[in-house]
Design a protein that fits this description.
By secondary structure, the chain is an alpha+beta fold. The chain has 6 helices and 17 strands. α2 packs across α6 and α3 runs antiparallel to α5.
Length: 279
């Protein structure tokens, strides 16, 4: 069974985050899924097989399995819409039950996922100090309106909100040191954020835990961030728009719709496009 290559959260017909999508009658053994994901080389590959009236899904980065991946779920929604027709598909993950919707829009697919429940907690000072050192960020560079935190929307992340777009653009860190820190702390990614307005944010996601320096679009982290803003009482007006990947030359657009109930699922949506053979 071949792997489809789909860019999720694209900026129209360009940009987005490449994901592999494998669909078969039964999931391969974990070691085989890990091998396929490493061969594909994208930050994540989603593997799906029928389960009752829905689909059993697992996600692998080139180096490890991850519990949930937003952009690969959006890519899977596009692939399922292509295979099954437009609709809403029930997904059974290792730790949650969610849905993804896929509907054709010309050459693109409009897709939306419902995340697992969200939660947030303060970032311990010791871990904050290590993250600031890793990224070369000074405490004065942090935006005091949104404190550093541990956030969750299907996977665990840390979030650092910065005052300056220039500091975000200059993000850098050593991959091996980042991998060690993230694995020790149980973090899938570290999200760096700049607020353009109450409803529009710019983000970058360091994904060293998966062997990838940076992800150009991260639906799981966007869901977790949206849940955190709700926890803070941020004036989000019911939704936020996130621009990610600009500094990588892979501009991506994500929208997160935020319900009023604390901890409830976040709807994250965007477009998906099939990648060209030369990408």
């Amino acid at each position: 069974m071949s792997v489809q290559k789909i860019a999720a959260f694209s900026d129209g017909a360009v940009g987005g985050n490449p994901a592999g999508v494998w669909i078969g009658e039964a999931l391969p053994p974990p070691a085989e899924m890990q091998r396929i994901a490493a061969d594909v080389g994208f930050s994540e590959t989603a593997f799906a097989a029928p389960l009752g009236s829905g689909w059993s899904v697992r996600y692998f980065s080139p180096e490890s399995e991850v519990p949930f991946c937003g952009h690969a779920t959006i890519a899977l929604g596009a692939a399922l819409a292509q295979r099954e027709g437009d609709g809403v598909f029930a997904l059974s993950l290792a730790q949650a039950q969610i849905t993804v919707e896929g509907r054709h829009d010309g050459d693109l697919v409009q897709a939306a996922l419902q995340s697992p429940p969200t939660r947030s907690a303060p970032l311990p000072q010791g871990l904050l100090d290590r993250l600031l050192t890793l990224f070369g960020i000074a405490p004065a560079d942090l935006d005091p309106r949104i404190p550093p935190a541990l956030i969750h929307g299907g996977a665990d992340h840390a979030v650092l909100v910065l005052r300056s777009r220039a500091v975000l653009a200059a993000m850098h860190y050593a991959l091996d040191a980042g991998r060690t820190l993230m694995l020790e702390a149980g973090l899938v990614t570290v999200v760096l954020v700049v607020v353009e307005s109450d409803q529009r944010l710019h983000t970058r996601n360091a994904f060293a835990s998966g062997g990838v320096l940076e992800d150009p679009a991260t639906g799981a982290a966007t869901a977790a961030l949206a849940g955190y803003l709700r926890d803070l009482g941020w004036p989000h007006g019911g939704a936020i728009d996130v621009v990610q990947g600009e500094d990588m030359g892979m501009r991506s657009r994500l929208r997160a719709e935020i319900g009023a109930v604390p901890g409830s699922s976040i709807r994250v949506s965007g477009t998906a496009r099939w990648m060209r053979s030369d990408e």
